[in-house]
Amino acid sequence: MVAFADLSLSFLTGLSGLTTRDTSSGSPDAACTTGTVQVRSTVCEQIATAVSSSSVVYYAGESQYIKDNYHWSASSNQPSECSFEPATAQDVGIALRILGQTQTPFGVKSGGHATNAGFSSTPGVEIALYSFSDVVYNSTTQTATLGMGLIWDDVYVALEPYNMTVVGPKITGIGIGGITLGGGYSYLTNQYGLGIDSVVAYELVMPNGTVAEITDVTNPDLFFALRVSFQQSDHVNSLNFLRYFKGGFNNFGIVTTVTVNTHPQSKVWGGLVSYSMNEWAAASSAIANYSATVTDPKASMYNAFNYIAGVPIMANILFYDGPTPPAGMFDEFLAIPAIVALVSTRRYVDLVQSLPLNATAGLRTVFSSVAMVDATVPVMDMIVNETTFWSKKLANSSAGIVTYGVDVFLPTIYDHVASPTAYPPSRSQGYSFIELFYGWTESKYDSTIFDAVNASGQNIIDSLVADGQDVANVAVYPNHAPPNTTLERMYGDNVPRLQSIKSAVDPDNVMGLTGGWKF
């Protein structure tokens, strides 16, 4: 799923002050520039002494400390006592044992796109996984083993000489963690399922510090639980509304590498098409017609209605997994007068990297999403009304960005997996999604914004049910769940099993020292 605020921002001018970085005392930048002397904690020094020379501890005042603590969303930033970049799984294990013995809070970051405060940041020790950066392709098994410190761009480029790719994010700058542990809806999801559905093995550092390979054969309970139970991804680009994005389910240990199935990849067709508000009705009709008629799994379409500093703009990404889509498939979209139309045949990685990045970084942010069965014209009208209403309602609460996205998927997207996963709790039917994204600047409005996103989400559910769509009890996508979401709303009947696995794997509750929802 994709948030399009960055796409739309790239076509607007005069908004340079909208996303000014937070330089309050709660940001890592501020912690490094106050002019005070950083007091090195005993725990940080203990880790630095115990691990190998290839792993490094950093302190405030060092540039790598800033990178390690940085989060795309200002609402997730906080300064840690130190940051730790482990180079081996064994060193991760040493650090976990020390943290558990000293009962020191810690965060785990494979990049940092959590929006919920404290989910992958910490006042204690921030563990940043950047050193796990290898891509190893196995042509015999057609799998790739990926380090959790990578971004997906690196993976796409590394696999391109083999004419292979993976189920990864739709835009540039995204880290491995959120997709392979958090769900992962992709351009390729209609063909191959979620990102977690392609996983065949995890290298997991257990809470007791031991390192294990987790597969459906070696440990089916943990393999079930790890999908979805992730540390935070590197989501430096807010286009990725899907996700790959939130959560913070640090319950079972720390994943350092993941092995995934790969898939053949040729050139693709697609790109960005953006419309002014005058064309929203025509574009809504095109989306409804696409949702009702297109069943080709190689096709994908993502849309968002945006108000950015009060200015309405709509963005679509059209995609076909081949050099040319079937005749007529996207003609209705292309016939609408567009502000920008950047659609062409190109390499897969070129399409991913063609989309602008990071214009919304530094805002306080929240996501939510609602499942839907059909994107009908009445549903599209309702989404436009929600976008307009909440943009005006929140204008005085420092909300400079209000986005409502529409991701259309086939009902068969959950059929591409060999073993059960923690999310979704039911795979009997796949859904499309309506995604909400609000960006604001002042922390005093946090509660107002959270109340708004919850109220809008419930109103959307009520409207869909009134439209005849049975979605009231569909599981919430964990990557998009707002801060007050219950475990039962995300994992349904799987919660007792997940709690049992958590107790068995982590009897001393070491992972309770880090953030996120807890089993």
Account of the 3D structure:
The structure is a single chain. The chain is of the alpha+beta class and 519 residues long. It is 28% helix and 21% strand. It contains 16 helices and 18 strands. The protein has helices at 5-9, 28-33, 42-50, 63-69, 89-102, 152-159, 176-182, 189-192, 220-226, 280-293, 331-335, 348-353, 377-393, 446-466, 487-491, 495-505; strands at residues 56-58, 82-85, 106-109, 125-128, 135-138, 143-147, 164-165, 199-205, 211-214, 254-261, 263-264, 268-275, 299-308, 311-320, 340-346, 364-372, 399-408, 432-440. The chain has a seven-stranded antiparallel β-sheet. The chain has a five-stranded antiparallel β-sheet with strand order 5-6-10-8-9. Strands 1-2-4-3 form a four-stranded mixed β-sheet, sandwiched between helices. A hairpin with a 4-residue loop joins strand 5 and strand 6. Helix 3 packs antiparallel against helix 5, helix 10 packs across helix 13 (377-393) and helix 13 runs antiparallel to helix 14 (446-466). It is globular, with a radius of gyration of 22 Å. The model is unreliable at 10-39 and 230-248 (pLDDT under 50).
Summarize the topology.
Elements: H1 5-9, H2 28-33, H3 42-50, E1 56-58, H4 63-69, E2 82-85, H5 89-102, E3 106-109, E4 125-128, E5 135-138, E6 143-147, H6 152-159, E7 164-165, H7 176-182, H8 189-192, E8 199-205, E9 211-214, H9 220-226, E10 254-261, E11 263-264, E12 268-275, H10 280-293, E13 299-308, E14 311-320, H11 331-335, E15 340-346, H12 348-353, E16 364-372, H13 377-393, E17 399-408, E18 432-440, H14 446-466, H15 487-491, H16 495-505
Parallel strand pairs: 2-4, 3-4
Antiparallel strand pairs: 1-2, 5-6, 6-10, 7-11, 8-9, 8-10, 12-14, 12-15, 13-14, 13-17, 16-18, 17-18
